[in-house]
Write a structure and sequence with these properties.
The protein is mainly beta and 257 residues long. The protein has helices at residues 130-138, 153-157; strands at 19-25, 35-41, 109-111, 118-120, 216-218, 227-232, 237-242, 253-254. Strands 3-4-8 form a three-stranded antiparallel β-sheet, with no helix packed on it.
Length: 257
């Protein structure tokens, strides 16, 4: 099987921006009460991919506009302020570091500053089952390096930002060490009541440097019974799905440092 890895067009980048406009009117001594008004507008768009097996990758494109958002807490994944696409680490990287080009942009892969793991920057298209996902990662070469693999559920949870219950060390009971179906609890519903309100483009619950569709990503962790655990970055849930179905997305991981 041959799966092509999409190349990152440096001229096209996901944008993360928030515009705030405040207008205050009123004059000292004027009998007319001051009329204060403020408006804030933001927009997000995303496909709903959480419940069907027909998910497909829609790679995002746009003009990169760096923001001065705050870094998410690496323990809870909770940013200092709220709102989709408005907070998170500064977009970009240090030239000379792994996956970083001379322009200070991630190329082909992304280094998570919390774990030090390298992640595929733009995930593959399509919706493979777990067996095909494993084969894809095993055969992946980025920046001339192999050693890529399908991540565990703990590693996928380490990518979550903005939803403390399912981020690393969160209350969700599903981990590499507790992978049975009985390990899943209400905390694993993450931010199911606030879909696409994460800190990245389109409200994805991951680091704003990452690209791709938010939906459910396969892990190598299994509860048994032919099932596999996924982490869904639309709503930061941890859930299971029939591992034989072509119904998950794939983002490979490696240790390059």
């Amino acid at each position: 099987m041959s799966i092509r890895v999409p190349l990152l067009d440096r001229a096209l980048r996901g944008s993360v921006s928030l515009c705030l406009t405040a207008v205050l009117c009123g004059c000292p001594g004027d009998d007319t009460p001051a009329d204060a008004s403020s408006s804030a507008q933001g927009s997000t768009s995303a496909e709903d991919t959480t419940s069907t097996g027909a998910e497909t990758l829609s790679a995002s494109s746009g003009t990169t506009e760096a923001t001065s958002g705050t870094t998410a807490d690496p323990t809870t994944g909770d940013p200092d302020s709220t709102g989709p696409g408005t907070t998170g680490p500064t977009i970009g990287c240090m030239p000379g570091s792994p996956c970083c080009n001379d322009a200070g942009e991630y190329e082909e892969c992304f280094i998570d500053d919390v774990t030090g793991l390298a992640w595929e920057l733009v995930p593959q298209g399509g919706n493979p089952n777990v067996v095909d996902a494993l084969a894809y990662c095993d055969g992946l070469t980025l920046l001339g390096s192999g050693g890529w693999r399908l991540p565990s559920v703990d590693e996928l949870r380490s990518l979550l930002r903005g939803c403390p219950d399912t981020a690393s060390a969160g209350a969700c009971g599903v981990t590499d060490d507790c992978a049975g179906t009985d390990c899943r609890d209400d905390a694993c519903d993450g931010c199911i009541d606030a879909p696409n309100e994460g800190p990245a483009m389109f409200g994805c619950y991951w680091n704003p440097n990452l690209q791709g569709e938010c939906g459910g990503y396969w892990s190598i962790t299994t509860p048994g019974g032919g099932l596999g655990w996924l982490v869904d970055f639309d709503d930061a849930t941890v859930r299971q799905r029939d591992a034989s179905l072509p119904a998950g997305l794939v983002r490979c991981v490696a240790s390059l440092q």
